Every structure is written in structure tokens, then in C-alpha cells.
Hints:
single chain; alpha/beta; DNA polymerase, domain 1; TIM Barrel; 2 domains; ten-stranded mixed beta sheet; 12 helices; 20% strand; elongated; binds iron/sulfur cluster
Amino acid sequence: xxxxxxxxxxTYDRLVAWLAAxxxxxxxxxxxxxxxxxxxxxxxxxxxxxxxxxxxxxAAQFLLDDLTELARQTSxxxxxxxxxxxxxxxxxxxxxxxxxxxxxxxxxxQVGCRIGCTFCASTLGGLKRNLTAGEIVAQxxxxxxxxxxxxxxxxxxxxxxxxxxxxxxxxxxDFLNIVSDPRGxxxxxxxxxxxxxxxxxxIYDFADLGLKVRLAISLHAPTDExxxxxxxxxxxxxxxxxxxxxxxxxxxxxxxxSFEYALFGGVNDRPEHxxxxxxxxxxxxxLVNLIPFNPVPKRPYVRTxxxxxxxxxxxxxxxGVVVTLRREHGTDIDAACGQLRxxxxxxxxxxx
Length: 352
Ligand code: SF4
């Protein structure tokens, strides 16, 4: 697309500022947020309590465009995986998951990724571009409209889709601001989790914002040698630095942090790895979220056998660590992050 901003890109405060610059009162922002995020209309003409001149001024300045649904897979457990088209022909993945406590949506923040984790399919083509805040918001809206059909709502957001959110920091912060705004989608900060591969300076910046968002750091290995093999970003930000930043986040926000640990068969799932991991995470009372790895095409890793997963979890618990085992969603569809997009790429369905 050209230089035109989307209405979904605007935080409430930026919308108020734009309105003020155009001689409009601040309460119009409340009306516009209500139409966009509570009534979820798709056009400015539906915003019937706005004066015509304001609707025309908004139309001249902003796009109000939704994402195009290119593909949808629904699994037996109700997980819905969506491939959503952007206006420039790229596509992103968004996943809707059902839980006992509500419905969560997993959003993508970048087209591709340049972090280069060796177990991840999404990074194979490199980074194409960052998403705007509005393109991330539009994923949540798309999920919400899908849930509207059954009278349900998005209660939680996980920023764990394709991309490294902290490499698209400003858009991420605007996105969090927009979706948590009580005049709009009103998804509480405590119900939002942001996952990072461990971009240390941005962890400090994020902590300093004082949000109540939950932070998840992908660890995947308890030693620098092994982590650097799985996640080359570790050479730039080694474990000691990641742990210091994590501690800062906990102290600053008073929020418990979680460490994501994907289990790769024979690589990082041995008893000694569990003991070393416990030593790392115990001092900051972090939670460890174990993720059974789903093999992805073009990547050499295999799944850890069930009994080894159970043993790894027990060993961590014996060491005094709080552990969760991620419930697997949508195992009968292209469940791993990036698979749906990758498969469409392979079929030359989408631009590369
Ligand atoms: S796991 Fe996440 S951070 Fe790592 S390469 Fe894949 S998308 Fe990027």
C-alpha cells in the first residue's frame, strides 16, 4: 500500500490529536472507537452519528481495510488457523484457540523473521517487512468477528505468531495500547502475553513502559553452547544477559515471567538439561512452559517421546520449579507456527 495510514493504526490519543487538529471535539474519538471495535463496522458510512464532513475527512486521510481470509483450517478441538492476506499481497497467520478460561488469539507481528532459530520454518525466507499496529489489530478483529458468530469474545491475546515482536517495537506498543483500550476491544493487559526470543535491550525498554502484560522468553536451552545452536540470537544476547533482563522485568512490573522451552528429541530433553534449567530459572521464580515440538518441514528436529516429556517435567518440579505443559491445539491441522503460510508458499499460492 502507499503512504496512507489505517484507522486501525491509531491509538486513542493519536485519534484525539488528529481530531483536534481538524477542529473536532475529543468525544468523537470515543464514538469512532465504539464503531470500530465494539460495533465492528466495516465502513465509515455506517458511523451514522458522525457528521458527513468528518466522515469525508477521515476517508481522505485513512484506510479502513480488513484483512482478506485466504485460507481457514478448523481442528477437532475447535482451534481455527487463518491465513490472512495483507493489502500488498503478503499473508500472515493468525490462530484462534479455545480454553476453559476463554478464547485466545495468537497474532503475527512480522511477515517472515530474521532471527534465524534453527527449528523454525518462518525464518527460512528471511524478513519481508514489519506489520503496522493496525495490521496486528486487524488480526484480532478478524478473530473477534469469527467468534461473534457464536456469541463469544476474544478474552486473551498471545503475541507468539510469526516474527520477533521486539524487532517491531513501536507497532507492538501501539497495538497493545489499542486492543487494551476500555473504549474499544477492552482486552486487559493481564490477559495479554508477549513472547520474545530474548532481545535484551528491548526487554528493559518494555519493562520501563510499566504495562501489566505478561512476558514470555523463549529459552529452549540451559547452556549458551546449546542455545546458540538452536537460536543464533544467543550469540548476541547470551543467557546471563537474558536472565538479568528477565529479573529486571519481574522487579519492575511485579509480574511473573515465563520461559518457553520447546523439547527437541535427543537435543535438549535429557535429565542434565532439566537440572541445569532449574538452576537458571529458580532464582527469579519464573514459570517454565514446556512445549512438545511438532516437527516442521525442512527442519531436522524430532519430537521428544511422551515418557521423556513427563520425566523432564517431573525433574523440574523436583527441583522446585513451577512447570506447565502446553496443551496442544490443532494437532490435526498445520499446527506449528508458519506451516500454513509455508505450505501456501510451496504451492506458489502467495507471493514470495
Ligand atoms: S521462532 Fe520466532 S523468533 Fe525464532 S525465527 Fe521463528 S518466528 Fe523468528
